[in-house]
UniProtKB/TrEMBL annotation:
PROSITE patterns registered for this protein in UniProt: TONB_DEPENDENT_REC_3 (PS52016)
Leader sequence segment: 1-37
Family: Belongs to the TonB-dependent receptor family.
Keyword vocabulary terms for this entry: Cell outer membrane, Membrane, Receptor, Signal, TonB box, Transmembrane, Transmembrane beta strand, Transport
Upper taxonomic lineage: Bacteria, Pseudomonadati, Pseudomonadota, Betaproteobacteria, Burkholderiales
Membrane disposition: Multi-pass membrane protein
Species this chain originates from: Rugamonas aquatica
Positions of the TonB-dependent receptor plug domain: 64-181
SUPFAM superfamilies reported in the protein's UniProt record: Porins (SSF56935)
UniProt domain TonB-dependent receptor-like beta-barrel: residue ranges: 414-883
Cellular component, GO annotation: cell outer membrane
Name this protein carries in UniProt: TonB-dependent receptor
Major localization class: membrane
Length: 922
């Protein structure tokens, strides 16, 4: 390893000399306070002002010397917003687009459910790096397409501030930082005891929340030489059902999106063979007084069984059967329990050096409740009263039977209960380190052990398949209504209660950085920082034996499913050089080299320049390169079987006069990882300015531009079917020419372009007779966002247009107005996202038509809060979120399990009232 390390250091020493930068980064964004010249008190000399480290730089400096364009969200601003989780906080950041939340993770599938993530610039969760106190955490352990830290594992109550660096930062942090870096910084020197209680309630019920926080610390580092503190945060959120929201009915999903509903109903739909249907037609069999025309029938038509089971002739059940509207019988927001503990201890070894330790423990338990169990089962026709008098055993009726006299049922078993899963994400993080200065060197070294464990448990509504279908065939379980005591006893006995998926990710690392002045230039001291990291990553995925047996109804065994265990070592060195050429001009040069076991190495250089002609104005520019290493899921994940959205097969359509009712379907896909993947690469640059004409007013404007190449992705299923001449070899067909499955591989392919403008307007401390007023506007205007699936193919824009898996809105902003007078304060804020062209591609296979085009309306939410500082120790706050009870706008998207609106773009909870009380013993 010594030879390898020597090579790394040599490479790093060469890279440091390149024109590179971390410091000059894009955009002060929402809630930030751009600081061109943060004036220190006149009586305080620069020598007595403590040096600090800012996200995006490894060199400590006096904060008033620079104006890093980093968005800073303070603890006070978090309290004013009334948010209690890191995920809710990130939803208010204008540069965060399409992040995963509890609402968006609602699904009846099992791929990374429960994952809450950030997505800066909308270029992917996997390209946003999340840090805690400047160091990495273990990523969400479940294998899937997204890689990143689960925001559920961030102890929200312990956050002192959040620094959001909105520029590629691979030159300092390495992989995953293409879109930017989010650094959650916790309290570090707390003394006393602080109690906080918070409660919220929605106007229409459901999704209520209660939290309790205890913070305690002892020891003054300056006086006592130590400090130890801990924060415990407990949260509970109630579930929100579709029946609790009026806007669900107002979306008119059955009429607008009948193709997204289900043909599995209660009482059961009966799926006849062609011969059985023809025989019954000849015998004069009728449904609802009319001769049958379809192979799917239901004797209960038109009654069906409201409210979720509908008679919807245009639905998937057709004119002779029932259709199930699962959006009338599911949850929009899950019940969750979150518990976080963060403890930190500091021991002052001497005047300039500290020993520190951090412990962060978290557990997030989320219950997902979908509709009741669905199953396709057989039964003899003689057990169905409406069919018993006919002779389906005859040669004519049984010509294409598998078993003479049997018919197929598509049934939803209400007696089996709603399918309920419990997803538990647990995180442990232990850090021990030394920091300080010696002989003019500032240093920081740390050992980091982080673990994320995921347990996905089927707890109710999932049934043993073999015994279920046998119980239906034997007549013990009634598929046409409530079962008797014997049927219910059988259903109870075959309920699955099993930890079906278990994943564990472990990250162990040692890192260091050292900085030192290397000379004096006209503008001040030049400084050099060097650092390095060795990181070992391991992921284990263990499906249960029961899951692999493929005997859980509605939870099938993964194709090629098997336990997996993968590991790798990462080594990195980096350097940064700060060059204050004059009082006006400063350059920051940096570079990093990472080497990933198996994958290989990547160099990330960066250069940045700031120009401050006067104290009230700053100009900046930066340019650099970055990379993202393939995740171990990208490299080694077992084959996954899933399906496309409903898409036409052009080859088959050509044989049926392009009748989508015959040639469109949700085709099976087989998705493969690729052990030969190489890193993605990026180049980005930015140009910006900050103007602060007075201490009360400032403006920041930044242009940013990102290009990613060698994208780790699959060719989209819609792209494959849209160009069979080029990709037809990926479509596997049956002997009759119809699609068997579509082959999709992770590969390095194509490119992505994104560019835009970040704007911040800030007014603060405007004093009047009525009190002090302030205002803040931050927004992101995206100029370009498009993806090239394969080199040589045209780019496809998702700017203001839903494509494949999401949309990037043209404009997003947060605006806040603040007032305070003595012990009283108030805040009014608005978050706004521009409307966009909807998905507009789903196909109704019943009628053979494409969904009616739609444009999703702009989404605007207003929040208001007020606070009363009753005494120095006691503070009360109350507020309203979604003041005007704005409902999610209609969307015809078919990407997510939730239908009728886009859960990544909106919040279904509606108007919420909250109050909090805080008492501090200092």
């Amino acid at each position: 390893m010594g030879e390898v390390d020597s090579m790394r250091v040599t490479t790093m020493a060469q890279s440091v000399r390149l024109a590179l930068s971390v410091g000059a980064v894009t955009g002060l964004l929402a809630l930030a306070q751009p600081a061109v010249a943060q004036d220190a008190p006149a009586a305080t000399s620069a020598a007595t002002i403590p040096k600090v480290e800012i996200t995006g730089s490894a060199i400590r400096r006096i904060e008033s010397e620079t104006a890093l364009p980093v968005q800073v969200i303070t603890r006070e601003e978090i309290e004013k917003a009334g948010v209690t989780t890191a995920s809710e906080l990130m939803a208010r950041v204008s540069a965060n687009v399409g992040g995963l939340t509890d609402g968006a993770s609602i699904t009846d599938g099992h791929d990374q459910r429960g994952f809450n993530s950030a997505n800066l610039r909308g270029i992917g969760t996997s390209s946003t790096l999340v840090l805690l106190n400047g160091r990495r955490m273990a990523n969400f352990a479940s294998p899937g397409d997204d890689t990143g830290v689960d925001l559920n594992n961030i102890p929200a109550a312990a956050i002192q501030r959040v620094e959001v660096l909105l520029d590629g930062a691979s030159a300092l942090y390495g992989t995953d930082a293409i879109g930017g870096v989010i650094n959650f910084i916790t309290r570090k020197d707390f003394q006393g005891v602080e109690l906080n209680a918070y409660g919220s309630k929605t106007k229409e019920g459901g999704a209520g929340k209660r939290t309790a926080t205890l913070t305690a610390g002892t020891g003054d580092v300056a006086k006592d030489g130590y400090n130890v503190f801990a924060v415990v945060d407990l949260q509970r959120t109630d579930a929100l059902s579709t029946s609790q929201r009026k806007f669900i009915d107002n979306l008119h999903i059955p009429e607008r999106l009948p193709h997204l509903l289900s043909g599995y109903v209660s009482p059961a739909n009966i799926r006849l063979t062609g011969a059985q249907r023809d025989y019954l037609q000849e015998q004069g069999f009728t449904i609802n007084g009319k001769p049958i025309t379809s192979r799917t029938i239901n004797p209960s038509v038109p009654g069906c069984s409201a409210p979720a089971n509908l008679y919807l002739p245009t639905g998937v059940g057709g004119s002779d059967a029932c259709t199930y509207n699962y959006m009338g019988d599911t949850e929009l927001y899950p019940k969750s329990d979150k518990a976080n503990l963060l403890s930190r201890g500091v021991l002052q070894l001497n005047a300039n050096n500290q020993l520190f330790a951090e412990v962060a423990l978290s557990r997030s338990k989320t219950s997902y409740v979908a509709s009741s169990a669905r199953v396709q089962a057989k039964i003899n026709y003689k057990k169905i009263p409406a069919l018993a008098k006919y002779n389906l055993d005859s040669d004519e009726a049984s010509a294409d039977d598998d078993v003479v006299g049997d018919v197929t049922l598509r049934v939803r078993l209400n007696d089996g209960g709603r399918r309920t899963s419990e997803l538990t994400s647990e995180s442990q993080r232990y850090v021990v380190g030394l920091t300080g200065s010696a002989n003019g060197f500032d240093y920081d070294v740390g050992l980091n052990h982080s673990v994320n464990t995921i347990k996905d448990k089927d707890t109710h509504g999932y049934l043993l398949y073999d015994k279920l279908v046998k119980g239906i065939y034997d007549g013990v379980i009634n598929p046409f209504g409530p079962s008797d005591a014997a049927g219910r006893a059988l259903l109870d006995s075959i309920q699955v209660n099993d930890d079906v998926r278990h994943a564990r990710g472990v990250m162990d690392s040692i890192d260091f950085k050292v900085s030192h002045a290397v000379g004096t230039l006209a503008g001040g001291e030049a400084a050099l920082a060097v650092g390095g990291e060795v990181r070992h990553e391991r992921t284990d995925f263990t499906p249960s034996a029961l899951l692999l047996s493929d005997n859980i109804n509605n939870d099938g065994a993964p194709d090629g499913g098997r336990p997996t265990s993968d590991k790798r070592t990462v080594q990195a060195v980096y350097g940064e050089l700060l060059l204050p050429f004059t009082k006006q001009w400063e350059a920051q040069l940096s570079a990093r080299y990472d080497h990933y076991q198996v994958v290989g190495g990547a160099a990330s250089p960066k250069v940045g320049i700031t120009y401050t002609p006067v104290k009230t104005m700053l100009f900046r520019a930066s340019a650099g390169r970055g990379f993202r290493a393939p995740s171990m899921s990208d490299l080694y994940r077992p084959t996954q079987v899933s399906s496309t959205a409903t898409l036409p097969d052009p080859a088959y359509c050509a044989t049926v006069d392009n009748n989508y009712a015959d040639c469109a379907d949700a085709w099976e896909t087989h998705r493969y990882s690729n052990a030969n993947l190489k890193p993605e690469h990026s180049r980005q640059y930015s140009v910006g300015m900050v103007i602060e004409p007075t201490k009360q007013a400032s403006m920041t404007l930044d242009y940013w531009n990102i290009k990613r190449t060698d994208l780790i992705s699959e060719i989209g299923d819609d792209i494959i079917l849209g160009n069979l001449a080029k990709y037809g070899n990926l479509v596997h067909r049956l002997d009759n020419g119809q699609i068997d499955y579509i082959e999709m591989h992770k590969e390095n392919r194509g490119a992505q372009l994104a560019s835009g403008l970040d704007l911040v307007l800030d007014f603060r401390g405007v004093n009047t007779w009525a009190g002090s007023f302030g205002g803040h506007l931050s927004g992101t205007y995206v100029l370009n966002s498009k993806i090239q699936n394969v080199v040589g193919d045209p780019y496809v824009s998702n700017l203001g247009r839903f494509v494949t898996d999401g949309v990037v809105p043209r404009w997003r902003h947060t605006v806040t107005f603040d007032w305070d007078r003595g012990p009283y304060s108030a805040s009014l804020s608005n978050t706004w996202s521009a409307g966009y062209e909807d998905q507009n591609s789903a196909i109704d296979t019943t009628g053979g038509t494409v969904v009616a085009p739609n444009r999703v309306k702009a989404y605007s939410l207003w929040d208001m809060s007020g606070a009363w500082q009753v005494s120095k120790a006691f503070k009360l706050r109350a507020g309203v979120q979604n003041l005007f009870n704005t409902a999610p706008p209609y969307s015809n998207q078919a990407k997510f399990f939730i239908s009728g609106y886009d859960p990544t773009y909106t919040d279904p909870r509606g108007r919420r009232f909250y109050a909090s009380a805080n008492y501090a013993f200092k």
